[in-house]
Amino acid sequence: MNFHIKTNVISTRNEEKSYTAYKVQNAGRIRFFAMLKREFLTIVRNDIDSFIKVLVLQLLLVMPWANTAFAQKQKTNGQQQIIIPYGADSYIEYDLKKGIYAVYKDKNATFLNVSATLKLNGKTISSKDYQSRTYSKTNITDGFGQGIKYVIALSGNNLAPIKQVFYTYLNHEYFLTQIEAVGKGLETNSITPFSGGIPVVTGDARSIFVPFDNDTFIRYDAKPFVAPFSNMSAEVGAVYDNTTRNGFIAGSVEHEVWKTGIRSTAKKDSGNVIDVWSGYTEESVTRDNIAHGTISGDIIKSPKILIGYFTDWRNGLEEYAKANRIAEPPFVFNWTKPTPVGWNSWGVMQDKLTYEKATKVADFFADSLKAFRTGNTAFIDLDSYWDFMLKGGLDGDYSKLKEFADYCKSKGLQPGVYWAPFTDWGWKDGPNRKVQGSNYTYGELWTKVGNGYHDIDGARAIDPTHPGTRDHIDLVIWKLKQCGFKMIKIDFLGHATAESTHFYDPTVTTGMQAYRKGMEYLISKLGDQMLIYAAISPSLATGRYVHTRRIACDAFKTIKDTQYTLNSVSYGWWQTFLYNYVDADHVVLSTESEGANRARMLSSVITGTFITGDDFSVHGPWSDRAKAWYQNKELLKVVENGKAFEPVEGNTGQNASEMFTRKIGNDIYLAVFNYSNESKEFTIDAKRVGLPAQKEYIVSEILKGNKANMNIKIDAADAALYKFEIKK
After folding, report:
1. Residue 666 CB coordination number (10 Å)
2. For residue 228, is the peptide bond before it cis, meaning its omega torsion is within 30 degrees of 0?
3. N or C: which end of the chain has fewer CB within 10 A?
4. pTM for this structure?
5. Cα distance between residue 63 and residue 389, in whole Å
6. Residues of the chain predicted below pLDDT 70
């Protein structure tokens, strides 16, 4: 990626020579936080005294304490600038006169003319509109480490005072920013904490669309970033050059109040822009058909927004995921047991689920898949329709369900179950049906949206804050815990994020506030008895509440299912650092070809966990392949690692990368997929897949046990997993 932005430097030849000599003599020490390109160091030609002052300032910057302490205000030609350093060689240059700032990495501008806006009490205000701006700084220590909090206070022009806040850390190559408004009776449903330009992105320029959730078979999309172009992404956005991998990352790290959209725009005449908008709703993405809810009070804050430029966009997204987990630590208890593996009934059985079939599956795992384990156990998970085993409905007799759970445990297996706590699937039968466990009717619980309700996937959303919803949770979760289940798959959680014109809890006015209320209540009732797995759910906001999350929508057995799943891994693998695990849904072999089976299985393995889905209560070709493959020790070693592989390429649009890699111990693993109906040859680029230079390797294919080299051939609709061992 080349930067096509000119920077301000000293204009006289003597000054240029002097500075060049100084820089050469101090190479490796200077942090360039006061590079002469900055406006506050722009000096009058031939003003030697000013130049000497600049050199003194440069020397101060190389002192050991300079990076953490330096935020010196300078006045030059009537302008006021402050410098806010972060990371190893990056800084923010804020113009107190104009209310805008630029961001630099090393000697390159990465973001320019950055401002913030918010809609406050019906009036749109920009950080550029104020008359007075002052700043202060405070040392902080939090989950991100030791850092400095900078506050720019903006006032004047009869505008409500606001603050632009920056959180910076030496050990992170990004900064966090936030907008805060203080006053009486404030209201807003729209804040743009960050809006700024970026340089021209050369090479194979891309902008990723990240979905808000994993519903309706939605896909990630690495779109060509070529003017004219505009892309809105949910919660996080990335613009990068796939050739060099240099990239810009912007995204919200807080999701308890706001939904946030990241718009990346490429214009031929006015350049490239990234806007971060808190208050984003769009029916095809967030599932809302009304505007974002309004926040009111004497103090209003945007979410904290991460901004960074990275030499590898993949590292940037992984850092973003880790930052989310720091900014909003898990509410759920930490899962310290091995990577979960097992079986789920929705793969094939679905509504044909019975006690007899489920126990036969447990027998198959106990007798024929004894080595398919992590931590000496596997989960046998009942999906939807387990209520067929009940007598008298959800508030009736659970004895048969408990019998199943006990049977699994007797076989050395862990029983799992399923539930969708924020949905009404019987809404077409009318509003007067009693909600089990409560004194309310479903009509009282339905999430209100104007004159209608929130319906998606055939289910109607119920208000997560309603006491009837809580009573229902109390009943079902208590019953399932009494049965002794050790895992629960919770589904259709996106229904709980819907914006509503009225929530039961008067303190809740946005969908994400409602989601927090509902999920915190649910997780508090679940306690620490079960592994908690999310299926359909918000991608970022669910990280606080569950141990593992499905990366995409339902996937079954075909090579198309594999490609669909791996589209989400190609551009969402980084969520492996937000959750304990991400999951590729149940693996179904059925009667597909051996190659399609192998690809589907590997798509799960490289996502991080391994949940199977065939009907093992009866014998078929899937049974024999499962016995031969699922107990492969090398394959299980990859599963035990529990981390998703990262894509080798990021230029496949709505399709999936063909190669994924992950280092485990001293070995590097490479998964290669051929989604086409013809065989294909691949040449492995050692540098591209992350192999250390000037090393020799022993290359083997895990499933077939074959030796390999850097030129491989994959049959049609097939896949392979290679292991690179460094020769000693």
Report:
1. 9
2. yes
3. C
4. 0.90
5. 71
6. 1-79
